[in-house]
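Lay summary. Proteins are chains of building blocks that fold into shapes, and those shapes determine what they do. In this project we predict the shape from the chain. Here is one chain we studied, written as its sequence of building blocks.
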Amino acid sequence: MTAEHRSPAEPDAAPSVAHHDAHHVATHADDAPVSDLAATPDRAARPNGDQPDPNRWKALVICLLGGGIVLLDVSIVNVALQSISTGLPGASAEAVQWILSGYALSFGLLLVPGGRLGDATGRRRMFVIGVGLFTLASALCGFAPNGIVLVIARLVQGLAGGLLTPQVTALIQQLFRGKERGTAFGLFGATVGIATAIGPLIGGLLITAFGTENGWRFVFFVNLPVGLVTILLAFRYLPGSTGEERGKKHDFDPVGIVLLGAAVVALLLPFVQSEQWKGTAKWWLVVVAVVLGVLFALWERRYQRTKEPVVDLRLFRRRSFSLGVGLATVYFAGFTPLFFVLTLALQSGLHYSALLAGLTSVPFAIGSGIASTVGGRIVHRFGRQLIVIGTILVLLGLGAVIWVVANHYEPDLGWWLVLPLLVAGIGSGLTISPNQTLTLSEVPVEQGGSAGGLIQVGARVGSAIGIAAVGSVFYSSLASSDGDYTKGLPLGLGVSLGFVAAALVAGIVDVVVGKVRGTEATV
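And here is the predicted shape, written in a compact code that computers can read:
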């Protein structure tokens, strides 16, 4: 097997080399071999030689609690928007849009820098700070007296989420190896799927219980007890930095962080504001993002010759990583808009309550949760072939949703969607967590935070692009058909179908190329 795609267990078993010294040896020349990326052992995960951390499974539960509340807030607010518009002074249409888009923007802004901070200064420290800041911001959201305060609080929430999320994947990378790592990422994938799909249900329950006028406040208050418990348990069960790690000096690459952050915001902004900013001028920001991205790559290439960059660009030489990030981007572009447009069609078109609209997502959540757990356990046997199967199931489920909506848009639509959404959920579970596992399989542990942040940036960019593209087709069709959801929803979901098909093609290409070269991605 080639050095590029050797078994990812090798980085963990490599000879012990101090990180700072290894980094300078590997990056002092531009032509340093890619295999040097795998030359650092997992010391933090193996404090006693090859013995695993005895608290690793408890630590995983803490990570999933922290990561879960951040992911929940991506979707739980969708069903609360009507309640916010009704019960909050100053909640104009523009403010409501920024409650959604502001969170997405600030979340994407800190993913990679947050991961780098965790790698350099301690993942437990950044995890606790992230959860604490998220909890405080949630309280501010719940007590917000007007729309402006709520928008600001949501921006802070997003920043906290961007700081916290990469610590979760990095800690999993640090604490687990081999098959156990696949299982851990499977449970994380289950958390992603369940939190995204179950958010509307929890939001609907809270609004039903506390009323339309103030029910939205409890959508944010629900984070407070979870956040406080997570912080207390994190100090006990998450591994801290070793004495050797605390003594190291790190470079934080401030210029790289600014360039990357500006590129991410410039890329996300026209998509998350696509319905509010009319005209084509906004798309010039994509050009700005490309220019900033090129400048970032040039700067990082120069910076890594003598110092630690915020992103080691040599990671992208590995097919497992570069293809995995790309696959995550196009898959989330197809997966995320499903509940966005479906919730709108159920609430606005069929007059479902927030609770009933949320209940519709339960089959997807169940399928995703079960399949993610199973997928994490068997990904070491099937590799990316498992992702091919998963994306095929998602295509079948989405196709069935489109058919049902086009042919049976009646008040009992939710019941008709149970089986299609269950199939799509199973497929999603076999896609997200195995892809996360395979994408990070050859990443050195000390770079797990920034690498995990890059995957999340891809997912957030994909989500923004998908919602913008699907929403544009959906709203345009409604406008031209006098509000006919049987036309608008199938056309919008057809765009989602295209994105998932692109993810399937990427998975098939990787499987074929891997078989031809004998370099299949494995765990």
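What the prediction tells us: Confidence is low (pLDDT under 50) at residues 1-49.
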